């Protein structure tokens, strides 16, 4: 029996992409994957005038949505919030009659300058998933399946080898999602998608 094709939409929001060594590596690694659409919001909407109807069409054409962006002051760059406010309208994405996104998968792909060990109660006061609870609640409101984030920590400290490993892991993640058949309940037990990928690799290696 032929499985349904799963398309992934990367909603990329980085106001200084030209300076981002890490995001460039991540996107280069998935640029040739079938079924993956890269949508650069700052390139598309430099004036913040988001075309909501066009964005809705893109959402309808994809089954997995990724909010990919750097961590800016414990949140996302401003244009991504603008996108959420303009596109995820009551009556379309949520509320009465707002069922267009029901069952779609969504998560954040984050790059952060700080290392993972500082995002605890004794460091920045919260874990990264806790800082992004508003994104999780937005997804739940729209009846979407919100997965843990994929995170690249310590962006200023990464060696070329480490960056290559992160880019490879991101590609592996998207390849698995496009194939379908992933047990989502298993993923939800992990803090990061990176952890789920690593666990799967260790199991495969025996």
Number of helices: 9
As for the number of domains, it is 1
Tell me about the biggest sheet? 6 strands, parallel
Give the termini separation.
30 Å
Residue share in helix: 40-55%
Mean pLDDT: 92
CATH homologous superfamily identity: Flavodoxin domain
Portion in beta strands: 5-15%
Assign the CATH class. Answer: Alpha Beta
What string gives the helices and strands in order? EHEHHEHEHHEEHHH
- Which regions contain 5 or more consecutive residues with pLDDT less than 50? none
Structural class by helix and strand composition: alpha/beta
Radius of gyration: 17 Å
CATH architecture: 3-Layer(aba) Sandwich
CATH topology-level fold name: Rossmann fold
Oligomeric state, counting identical vs distinct chains: single chain
How many beta strands in the DSSP annotation? 6
| Coarse morphology | globular
Describe the structure.
Helix content is 40%, strand content 14%. The chain is of the alpha/beta class and 206 residues long. It has one domain (8-205): Rossmann fold (3-Layer(aba) Sandwich). Strands 1, 2, 3, 4, 5 and 6 form a six-stranded parallel beta sheet that branches. The longest helix has 20 residues, at 160-179. The protein is globular and about 45 Å long. It starts with 7 loop residues before the first strand and ends with a helix. The relative contact order is 0.16. The model has no long low-confidence stretch (mean pLDDT 92).
């Amino acid at each position: 029996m032929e499985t349904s094709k799963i398309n992934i939409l990367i909603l990329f929001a980085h106001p200084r992409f030209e300076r981002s060594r890490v995001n460039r590596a991540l996107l280069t690694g998935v640029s040739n994957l079938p079924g993956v659409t890269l949508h650069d919001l700052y390139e598309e909407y430099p004036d913040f005038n988001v075309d909501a109807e066009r964005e809705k069409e893109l959402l309808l054409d994809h089954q997995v949505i990724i909010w990919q962006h750097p961590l800016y002051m414990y949140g996302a760059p401003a244009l991504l919030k603008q996108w959420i406010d303009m596109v995820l309208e009551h009556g379309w994405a949520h509320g009465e009659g707002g069922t267009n996104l029901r069952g779609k998968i969504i998560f954040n792909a984050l790059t952060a300058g700080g290392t993972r060990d500082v995002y605890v109660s004794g460091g920045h006061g919260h874990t990264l998933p806790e800082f992004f609870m508003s994104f999780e609640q937005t997804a739940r409101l729209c009846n979407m399946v919100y997965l843990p984030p994929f995170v690249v920590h310590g962006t200023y400290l990464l060696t070329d080898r480490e960056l290559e490993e992160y880019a490879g892991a991101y590609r592996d993640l998207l390849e698995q999602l496009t194939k379908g058949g992933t047990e989502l309940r298993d993923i939800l037990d992990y803090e990061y998608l990176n952890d789920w990928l690593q666990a799967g690799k260790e199991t495969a290696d025996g």
